[in-house]
Amino acid sequence: MIRLFDPSDLESVQRLLSSIPEVVPWSADDFLLASQRNFCLRVAEEEETVSGLVAFRIIGDEAEILNLAVDSRQRRRGIGSRLMEEMIEACKAAGVKTIFLEVRESNCGARNFYSGMGFTEAGRRGRYYRQPVEDALVLTRRVE
Ligand SMILES: CC(C)(COP(=O)(O)OP(=O)(O)OC[C@H]1O[C@@H](n2cnc3c(N)ncnc32)[C@H](O)[C@@H]1OP(=O)(O)O)[C@@H](O)C(=O)NCCC(=O)NCCS
Questions:
Q1: What's the CA dihedral at 120, 80, 10, 133 to 10 degrees?
Q2: Is the CB–ligand 1 distance for residue 95 below 6 Å?
Q3: Is the CB of 2 under 6 A from ligand 1?
Q4: Using a 6 Å cutoff on CB, does residue 22 contact ligand 1?
Q5: Domain range 2-142, CATH architecture
Q6: Ligand 1 atom closest to residue 103's alpha carbon, by position in its atom list
Q7: Residues 47-96: pLDDT tens digits?
Q8: What are the tens digits of pLDDT across the range 30-51?
Q9: Which among 64, 66, 72, 102 could disulfide-bond with 136, CB atoms 3.0 to 4.6 Å apart, if both were Cys?
Q10: Ligand 1 closest atom vs CA 81
């Protein structure tokens, strides 16, 4: 099931994010800021356990994916795709025309995933990431 993030999910989502080296582990303050700034958060839940998260924001007719993560024990079961489909539906409903995101160049798994979801490379941000320093690829997709 994909549903809206609820503040009671905070602990389990933080635990999930801190177990995944490819994503930035948001602090409680980050989640507070996200809610104050009207960021959109959806979680995947199975048997009362949170197994994934997508965070995005919509600005005018553009959306940016800020975080996407699926529990490493639950991957390749379509959860990431379901989170993205929900996000794309929300974007459509809000009149978004373009979605974009940044991904580490070395993150081949996520790049393959995004490619399958229709994202293409639109640019590069040099030395965008820290620990380790690495370029980000900017990926984009039109919302039909
Ligand atoms: C990227 C991520 C969210 C995908 O979640 P998921 O639930 O495993 O994705 P799905 O099961 O919906 O995968 C759909 C398709 O994407 C592709 N894909 C997903 N993970 C992949 C991987 N590690 N390597 C290659 N292709 C992959 C496959 O084509 C897959 O279809 P298949 O399983 O039938 O072959 C997950 O691997 C993850 O949390 N990664 C770590 C965090 C991360 O990198 N986030 C993105 C930061 S920008």
A1: -40
A2: no
A3: no
A4: yes
A5: 3-Layer(aba) Sandwich (3.40)
A6: 48
A7: 999 999 999 999 999 999 999 999 999 999 999 999 999 999 999 999 99
A8: 999 998 888 999 999 999 999 9
A9: 102
A10: 12
Kindly state the tokens that stand for 37: 């700034």
HEC per residue, the chain: CEEECCHHHHHHHHHHHHCCCCCCCCCHHHHHHHHHCCCEEEEEEECCEEEEEEEEEEECCEEEEEEEEECHHHCCCCHHHHHHHHHHHHHHHCCCCEEEEEEECCCHHHHHHHHHCCCEEEEEEEEEECCCCEEEEEEEEECC
Rg (CA), the chain: 14
Q: Which residues contact 102 (CB under 8 A, 6 or more apart)?
A: 125, 128, 136, 137, 138, 139
Residue count (the chain): 144
Q: What are phi and psi of 33, to 5 degrees?
A: -60, -40
Q: Which of 74, 90, 101, 83 is nearest to 16 (CA)?
A: 74
Q: Which of 62, 50, 52, 60 is nearest to 83 (CA)?
A: 52
